[in-house]
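ARCHIVE CARD
Drawer: 12
Card no.: 0347
Subject: one protein chain, sequence and derived structure
Cross-reference: see card 0346
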Amino acid sequence: MQKIKTIAFDADDTLWVNEPLFRINEEKFDSLLKEYVSHSDITEKLYQTELKNLKHFGYGIKGFVISMIETAIELTNGEIKGCDLKKIIDWGKKQIDHPVNLLDGVEEVLRILKNNYQLMVITKGDLFDQESKIARSGLADYFDIVEIVSEKEESVYSLIIEKHKLKVDEFLMVGNSLKSDILPLVNIGAFAVHIPFHTTWVHEKVESKDLIGKHYVELADIRELLTLLK
């Protein structure tokens, strides 16, 4: 940790609350569709549609809304009412406009780290939505670099490190997703700190066998990062 010069943070569910907002709309969607069909696996059908659509729409709320609409049309054989499709669209708009609620300790930690490290955000998702959340979070001034990417994988992280003329063994990534924020960094020789969030999208979960031999630090709270770096 003495070598670290640049600390990058994931955004959603590392700096502010995100995933619970998707769960709320999933529950609304499930209740809405049950007025039309008796399927017990509406949420699973939605998830499969989301996965299929990632290559078309990427990550984020807009793709989520389109996937809800597509799933609704398919499960109801096109019988879903226009007014109910409008409800789904309105849920998405409300989610996009939802206040950015910082997680406990985030701003305090960034304020302290800013004095000694180059700070960065690396987040994936819709460009417009992520830029808006960063601006509305009040945290933008703490970061020297912001990278919004379509996917988080080893090659993407390597390109970012090369682009900004950084050294991989002086680079630390902090995030809540083992799949997106931790394993890719470990695999390219960087440092990684995992801070779990209580709600995780199933697409971001990894099997325990994938963690064998992978060296990273897990913290319960972002404030513990200050102690770790000392």
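Annotation on reverse: DSSP finds nine helices and six strands in the chain. Residues 19 and 96 are 12 Å apart (CA to CA).
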